[in-house]
Amino acid sequence: MKPILTFQVDPVVPARLKVLRELAYNICWSWEHDTIALFRRLDRDLWEETYHNPVLLLGRLPQERLEEVAHDDAFLAHLDRLASDLQQYLQSPSTWYLRTFGSSKRPLVAYFSMEFGLTESLPIYSGGLGILAGDHLKSASDLGVPLVAVGLLYQKGYFRQYLNNEGWQQELYPVNDFYTMPVVPLRDAKGDPLHVTVDLAGRPLTARLWHVQVGRITLVLLDTNIPENPDDLKGVSGELYGGDGEVRIRQEILLGLGGLRALKLLGLKPHVYHMNEGHSAFLALERIRWNMKEHGMSFGEARELVTAGTLFTTHTPVPAGIDVFPANLMERHFGPFRSELGLSSEAFLDLGRIRTGDPSEPFNMAALAIRTSCFVNGVSRLHGHVARRMWPALWPGVPEEEMPITHITNGIHAGSWISDDMRSLYDRYLGPRWAEEPGDARRWRRAEQIPGEELWRTHERRRERLVAFARRRLAAQLRRRGTGAGSLAEAENVLDPEALTIGFARRFATYKRATLLLSDPTRLSGILNAPGRPVQVIFAGKAHPKDGPGKDLIREVVQLAGRPEFRHRVVFLEDYDSVVSRYLVQGADVWLNTPRRYKEASGTSGMKAAFNGALNLSIPDGWWDEAASPRTGWAIGRGEDYDDPAYGDRVESSMLYDLLEREVVPLFYTRSSDGLPKGWIGLMKSAMGELCPVFNTNRMVQQYVTEAYHVARDRAARLEADDFRRARSLAAWRDKIRAAWHQVQVVDVTAELPHDVQVGTRVELKAIIDPGPFLAGELAVQAWVGEVDERLEISGGRAVGLTCDEEAAGPRLIFGGSIECVQSGRRGLTVRVLPYHPDQPGPFSGAPVVWAQPS
What we know:
29 helices, globular, Rossmann fold, 855 residues, alpha/beta
């Protein structure tokens, strides 16, 4: 029966406790342990029952309990102190951004992401991408960066996981009640809800606006489950990563176009737009349309202006992870829209095709994002290399090492993931400002001064809590399956609070190889059950609901854990989320990660473990490729490539067992006379000192601000100035490039080579260029020199600019210069021509590179 009226019932909070609601609705409580302690004081059991949701906690507290604490002097003193701390935090005049750059009247950047992992009580995230986005906002808040974020408010969010008796993953989709979560509906001056509307193939879709306060940062969320929408469209924001291509394109239209319209409705005009993955790439098309309509610009002029102020971060190392849409689906949803842009169907589709002009190509969201961004980055050094390998067709003729995709390595928000015990230890020995400046390497060098016994006892307490948590969780899992009393009693004795504990928790995709450790059960049993040196492994993770092979990996782990020799040593914890993650990264001794190399873009769980004193044991992929050293943990192999994946699995599983048997386990169990594993403790300290100041989101966000946000803001401002004169000039230049670049040729190259070329020798070079209709100042002519590899091609080359000889006569131009020979060995040299404009986003943004052709 449908109600004829709906209304919200709020708890009657005594006036003395009103500030509790302010604390509950600002997500910064999630990384302030003292605020969490305050909510626990209200009702510890209810805090756990509400899954750490202070809004729901306040709604469920008996009125008499609220009245009781309103007269509790100790509680009120605690509350007043936290209320004062929150105001000081929000109004601080000395944030990093203010100290470095001063105030900003407009938001510097709008950050768009399909998911945000802020807290387990707001389940609108699925995994690493969302957690990274959430940590990005938290550090932006701590640093005072003027940022606004945009996402979707999912009615069901991501699925909850449970296993049946055979170990097969099952999915539940609990419905989110936004009115009992730390989200607030946005309203106009009259108190009416704010809405935006987008067109879905001729049908209007309306979204209600909500916001989440993340410290100093506002996150705007769009919700379509409202009466204004027909039933079949209410579910557009219903489920994260659910449905078919039709559902996905609707969600991405809502995020990109609807998100932009939400910012406009709120009067927010960011300088820069940051797309976290390609899901929001349609926002670039909407911004182009706006500029054309509001400023009378052509498509090309508007595109130049939009590109100058747009950034794109890619997280996927494989093409299969990118959303693509067929041409007919794009035309159905964007036919009238593209007409407003003045584009033909083919020209519009080419914006998202990898190979333009190929009608068999689908519309690729990452390709659209790259083509409309001035800054593109991967999320680790190795991932930047992998991403450049993925997109050679977008930059014809450009050597891989010069493709304009850089990297900014991910990090984690330290305050959100460090245990309270470890935080207290850091406060004592690093000084309380470590949390405000987690990137200060000088502070982290003080980790060496932490007394070994104190560090070890702190870590042991966390391991004990992890074991207790795992036992409770396992018992609850067994009860849900209807397991008998005997098995429940046995669950209370699994794991050993003093044993070497390995954590493995992540999405169960096949490339992550969750079962690599299980590939030789006999050898594994020998390691786990060695007399006097027990080892145990705790697994957690979800497989995508449609990923059958991933689900099979979970089943394999669960079935092995049920065998007698593993029953007390291997545990799989269901429903991996932020709560499970915190217990694992805070309590494990070793963090295991075994992806196939080049498949892990970054990985952040190992960073969280490192901040808590755990040591990483990992394939050198993602972040670990740049972090692994004898002072930080163990690398499984040296980054070898294997043509046969099955052979590679066998080799690397053997390496893993060798490391455990010969290095990891002996180091853990080698104790001094006082019972401390001093070698292990020393490695913990050196790992913290080297990893923590680098792999945190404060460093990451600062890098985005200085290397990307401000550069893009300034570039966009230049193009906007003087009635968009530079944008119009750049667009005209681009039109000229498209029309006539094919006429440019390298006619001849001559080099003066001495008989004996030695290191330090300078080679004089001249190149005759047919410039077509271009002037010398519109060309960048360069020598390209480097080592000649086994394919007789130049490898690892470097560019040396050549200058035009102004005395050259006729239509052809002569460029010349000298190249110093800086290394011995066989070297190759050639010449290339690139289009040049002072306002272009990068050297390869104009047209294909023209190379000299060997005779």
